[in-house]
C-alpha cells in the first residue's frame, strides 16, 4: 500500500507543521489503516486521535512531551508504504497482536544540538498493533 502524503513543502525544503484533526478510524478498521491514522495524527499534531488509537498503557507524557519523539519532531512525510501485517512469534500480554513494516521519506526537526535544524531521513521501522476490546490499537514502533 503506497500513500502519498506530502505536507506544505516550503522554506527549509522540509515543510512546516500543518495542524489538523484526523478522524479516528472505525472499530472495524484494518491494522494498516490504524497505523496510517497514527502517522497522520502525529504529523498533524492531533493529540486526541493519537490518544484514541494507542494502547491504554502508553506513557502519554513521554509520547507528547519528550524532546526527541515523533509527536514533537516529525514535520512531514512522503512515499509512505505499509507492508502486510504479520503475527510475531510472541505477543505482549493483553491480546492478539500484529506487526508491519513502514517505510517513508520523513522530514524531522531537532535530534541534534540544534533543535531548529531540519533533516530528511529514509524511515523504515516495524510498527505494532494489539487487539484491545473491539479494535486494533497502536503499541508503538521500533522495539515498542
H/E element string?
EHHHHEEEE
Q: How many structural domains does the protein architecture include?
A: 1
Report the sheet-strand fraction. 25-35%
What oligomeric assembly is this protein in?
A: single chain
Distance between the termini: 23 Å
Which secondary-structure class do the elements indicate?
A: alpha+beta
Estimate the global geometry from the Cα principal axes.
Answer: globular
Largest sheet: 5 strands, antiparallel
Percent range of helical residues = 10-25%
Question: What is the level-2 CATH architecture name?
Answer: Roll
Low-confidence stretches: 1-12
Q: What name does the CATH topology carry?
A: Nuclear Transport Factor 2, Chain: A
Number of strands: 5
Average pLDDT rating: 84
Describe this structure in words.
The protein has a 5-stranded antiparallel β-sheet with strand order 1-2-3-4-5. The protein has helices at residues 31-43, 47-52, 60-65, 70-73; strands at 2-3, 74-82, 97-109, 118-132, 135-141. The protein is globular and about 40 Å long. It is an alpha+beta fold. Residues 1-12 have low confidence and may be disordered. It has one domain (2-141): Nuclear Transport Factor 2, Chain: A, CATH 3.10.450. Helices cover 20% and strands 32% of the residues.
Topology:
Layout: E1 2-3, H1 31-43, H2 47-52, H3 60-65, H4 70-73, E2 74-82, E3 97-109, E4 118-132, E5 135-141
Structure keywords:
4 helices, single chain, Nuclear Transport Factor 2, Chain: A, 144 residues, disordered N terminus, 5-stranded antiparallel β-sheet, alpha+beta
Amino acid at each position: 500500500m503506497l500513500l502519498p502524503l506530502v505536507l506544505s513543502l516550503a522554506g527549509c525544503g522540509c515543510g512546516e507543521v500543518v495542524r489538523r484533526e484526523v478522524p479516528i478510524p472505525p472499530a472495524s478498521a484494518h491494522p494498516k489503516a490504524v497505523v496510517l491514522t497514527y502517522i497522520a495524527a502525529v504529523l498533524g499534531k492531533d493529540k486526541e486521535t493519537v490518544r484514541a488509537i494507542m494502547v491504554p498503557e502508553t506513557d502519554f507524557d513521554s509520547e507528547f512531551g519528550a524532546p526527541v519523539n515523533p509527536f514533537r519532531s516529525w514535520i512531514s512525510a512522503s512515499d509512505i508504504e505499509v507492508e502486510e501485517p504479520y503475527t510475531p512469534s510472541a505477543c505482549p500480554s493483553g491480546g492478539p497482536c500484529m506487526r508491519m513494516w513502514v517505510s517513508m521519506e520523513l522530514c524531522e526537526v531537532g535530534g541534534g544540538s540544534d533543535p531548529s535544524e531540519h533533516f530528511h531521513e529514509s524511515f523504515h521501522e516495524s510498527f505494532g498493533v494489539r487487539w484491545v476490546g473491539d479494535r486494533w490499537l497502536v503499541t508503538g514502533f521500533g522495539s515498542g
